[in-house]
């Protein structure tokens, strides 16, 4: 036969570099393997989403006369790993060579590098040009920059891609409209209702399989209604641009109990597995601005997340791996408490976020960053444990995007490689941006004592505990000046109460 083209579960695009020169006689190979579902125990919904999307993608290729060799998880001889399954496929097809697109995770790239020897067959690894910035361009930019700052990278990406540019100038006159994107949600504002996608036979079979094989993993499979085909993903993107994008910017940081999506796109899982392409998403968003359908603060904010943050985070991952995984500059060692899995905590903001992620494998950015992430930072949870939790629970989580967000963005475990200061905040921020505190047993206004919100005592404990490591940071000058001015007894009380709270966290490691 010709070429064996191995497509991974997060590479579901017909434009993929490894499929581009597909010819008669070639075979596309895909496999569901237990190792990928178990190397961390992924949320049941994430596995179901990906298997269903993979099976639909294979069906779509077959409908275009492509020969697809698809090994399902419950196939008799399934060998359980990429390498062993590929070996079997090579024995079946005896290809002249194997072609793959580079993977999203460092661990899988190491596997791929061994394949030529293990398979006794030529293996070509092609770049993943679904991203808008390749590794060399990112590294060159990083080498030439005094500091790794997303904002400068983003401006460079705007110039290079031409998104939201009027000649050499940014559309609307400014590069960044973030200051207009921090409005709390007024009661009268309601979030638009999402389209849902019915479960067909293929998805039904996957849901049964996942319930049987991974029913003891975190999360629920109930009410599965997410897009799983390219056609559904495009329909969903159109819906988002029409109905939610215009308010995306203004309420980007807001949180509301019982309304997990608000005006967020909920496209990350579709984008990361290849059903949507970053360029087409940004094109649609820019069209909405140019046609007067969505304001500049919404469209600029949205495009920045994709060509700025998403590409920047990927660049950091590949530049810093493999040492990045073990970063722990703040020497944080506390074990993750059980309630991250059970959801049983009296802190309402955390309880609501944990409930939502169990049901849907999704939280929006501010819940990930300022509620759960902030709590992890303040408590000093071990970065390895936090990384694993974030990789398990979200349906969009792959190491290349999860790790820098956890290590760099929320935990400051890389010592400020790209964040100018830790994102530490007391209860005030959550109270301002959400309605969680109204239904909580703790008060955000009380700083210490009975009923005080733990975020308040934890905040000052974090600042005091890390004084030697952080006080040289100019962006924390005011914080440390406030700590110096604070009544000594008050600081002592805060720290004592924080210690009692931290000592009371139960971490059995059973989950
Ligand atoms: P929207 O708010 O609608 O944003 C649009 C898109 O911008 C997202 O779909 C995403 O592709 C991109 N984006 C926005 N922020 C980021 C960012 N910081 N890094 C990379 N892309 C970004 N995103 C993932 O895709 N996978 C992850 O595993 C992941 N882990 C995260 C862990 C932490 C601790 C934090 C703080 C953020 C993480 N993010 C991750 C980024 C972001 O929170 C999600 O992309 C976003 O919440 C997905 O929801 P959405 O599609 O509604 O995004
Ligand atoms: C996440 C995942 C899971 C759960 N299962 C599979 C699978 O069975 N087959 C597959 O090709 N990909 C799977 N994936 C996605 C891979 O883990 C992903 O391709 C690598 O982590 C590289 O990003």
TrEMBL record:
Key words, A-Z: Lyase
Entry annotated with the keyword Lyase: yes
Origin: domain of life: Bacteria
InterPro entries (UniProt xref): Crypto/Photolyase_FAD-like_sf, PhrB-like, Rossmann-like_a/b/a_fold, UV-DNA_repair_photolyase
Transmembrane segments: none
GO terms assigned for molecular function: lyase activity
Protein name: Cryptochrome/photolyase family protein
Organism: Fulvimarina endophytica
Lineage: Bacteria, Pseudomonadati, Pseudomonadota, Alphaproteobacteria, Hyphomicrobiales
């Amino acid at each position: 036969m010709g070429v064996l083209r191995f497509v991974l579960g997060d590479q579901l695009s017909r434009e993929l570099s490894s499929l581009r020169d597909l010819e008669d006689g070639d075979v596309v190979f895909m496999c569901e393997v237990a190792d990928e579902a178990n190397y961390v125990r992924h949320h049941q919904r994430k596995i179901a989403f990906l298997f269903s999307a993979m099976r639909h993608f294979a069906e779509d290729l077959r409908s275009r006369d492509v020969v697809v060799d698809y090994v399902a998880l419950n196939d008799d001889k399934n060998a359980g790993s990429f390498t062993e399954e590929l070996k079997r496929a090579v024995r079946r097809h005896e290809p002249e060579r194997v072609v793959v697109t580079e993977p999203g995770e460092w661990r899988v790239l190491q596997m791929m590098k061994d394949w030529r020897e293990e398979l006794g067959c030529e293996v070509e690894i092609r770049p993943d040009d679904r991203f808008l910035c390749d590794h060399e361009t990112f590294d060159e930019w990083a080498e030439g920059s005094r500091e790794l700052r997303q904002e400068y990278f983003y401006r460079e990406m705007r110039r290079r891609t031409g998104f939201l540019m009027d000649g050499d100038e940014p559309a609307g006159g400014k590069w960044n409209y973030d200051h207009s994107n921090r409005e709390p949600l007024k009661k009268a504002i309601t979030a638009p209702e999402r389209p849902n996608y019915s479960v067909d036979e293929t998805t039904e079979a996957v849901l049964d399989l996942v319930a049987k094989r991974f029913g003891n993993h975190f999360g629920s499979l109930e009410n599965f209604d997410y897009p799983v085909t390219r056609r559904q993903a495009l329909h969903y993107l159109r819906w988002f641009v029409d109905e939610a994008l215009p308010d995306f910017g203004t309420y980007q940081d807001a949180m509301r109990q019982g309304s997990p999506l608000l005006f967020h796109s909920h496209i990350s899982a579709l984008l990361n597995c290849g059903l949507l392409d970053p360029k087409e998403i940004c094109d649609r968003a820019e069209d909405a601005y140019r046609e007067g359908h969505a304001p500049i603060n919404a469209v600029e904010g949205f495009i920045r997340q994709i060509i700025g943050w998403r590409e920047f985070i990927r660049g950091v991952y590949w530049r810093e791996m493999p040492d990045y995984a073990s970063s722990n500059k703040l020497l944080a060692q506390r074990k993750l408490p059980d309630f991250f899995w059970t959801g049983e905590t009296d802190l309402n903001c955390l309880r609501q976020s944990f409930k939502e992620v169990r049901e849907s494998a999704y939280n929006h950015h501010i819940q990930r960053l300022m509620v759960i992430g902030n709590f992890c930072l303040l408590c000093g949870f071990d970065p390895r444990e936090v990384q694993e939790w974030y990789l398990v629970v979200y349906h969009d989580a792959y190491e290349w995007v999860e790790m820098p967000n956890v290590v760099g963005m929320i935990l400051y475990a890389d010592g400020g490689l790209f964040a100018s200061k830790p994102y530490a905040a007391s209860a005030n921020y959550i109270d301002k941006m959400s309605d969680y505190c109204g239904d909580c047993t703790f008060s955000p206004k009380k700083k210490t004592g009975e009923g005080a919100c733990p975020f308040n005592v934890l905040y000052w404990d974090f600042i005091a505990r890390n004084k030697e490591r952080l006080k040289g940071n100019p962006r924390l000058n005011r914080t440390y000046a406030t700590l110096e001015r604070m009544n000594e007894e008050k600081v002592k009380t805060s720290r004592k109460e924080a210690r009692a709270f931290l000592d009371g966290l139960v971490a059995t490691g059973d989950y």
